[in-house]
Amino acid sequence: MATTANGTRASFGEYVLRTPAVGPTIALIVAVVVFSLSTSTFLELDNLSLVVEQSLVVGTMALGQTLIILTAGIDLANAANTVLATLLMAKLVVGGAPAWLALLVGIAAATLIGALTGVLVTNVKLPPFIVTLGLLTILTAVSRIYTGESVPVSDSLLSWLGTRRYLFGGIEVTYGMTVALLMFLVVWYALNKTGWGKHVYAVGNEPEAARLSGINVRRTVIGVYIIAGLIYGIAAWQALGRVPNADPNAYQTANLDSITAVVIGGTSLFGGRGSVLGTLVGALIVTVLRSGLTQAGIDDLYQNVATGILVIAAVALDRFTRGRQR
Question: Which of 57, 126, 154, 202 shows the smallest number of beta carbons within 10 Å?
């Protein structure tokens, strides 16, 4: 049993409701156990490694999305931003530019788009939903105008994050997995151990109270969007490592998948509550669910129904939890 702020002991149910990452972790364990018992291949090392690899790019996008949702914002254009960065990297290399320069240009472009989003949200005071919906349309069109077709990538630096190694002789890992893990650790530290992280939570929880307490709300929100853009740029590098082919039509539903991972992971859509650990677990839940249902022979459409139900249940639980805390 945990202890509440007023010194009384909380029930296990109350502890789960108050700790965003606990519920998703329990759900992930239950899903793994169920699919391990109901299918013959789910628990194989190759399949578990594939599950982690499949969650890599969306999980990284979800990391940036988490920062934005913590400030009560949302980013519908994160996947389009990532795709455009992959195209920039691939086209520049095909055109003869050094791979390191193409990589920097792609990451910088994604970061600048994040900065532009932050400026529109804070300085022009447009709703994040409208800004990122407009950017989603613009970036998708720009990507198709820029290339029109997929661009194969053969450069070793751009595909380096897809390099495979084996732990203990059998567990397959890629450099992209290691980079993603390091990024989650860095963001976790920044949110939980620095003043900046406290400002992010304060702005998302009650922006006016945060402003009155001396926090520069505008600078905090712009900083969040810039960091999210940087993360999307690195997600683009991971995408080229996983599939060495930049495609303007790739990751069409990844923006919604990243929001799903964040919400299922326990981060509140209303801002000010959540954790990157929950997001990591949320991304794994989405991938485990799809992998397990596929191996059980369930049609894709029913998988989408199950995912949608999970999102609605997670948001309803979040609203219920916030109501109890007030």
Answer: 154
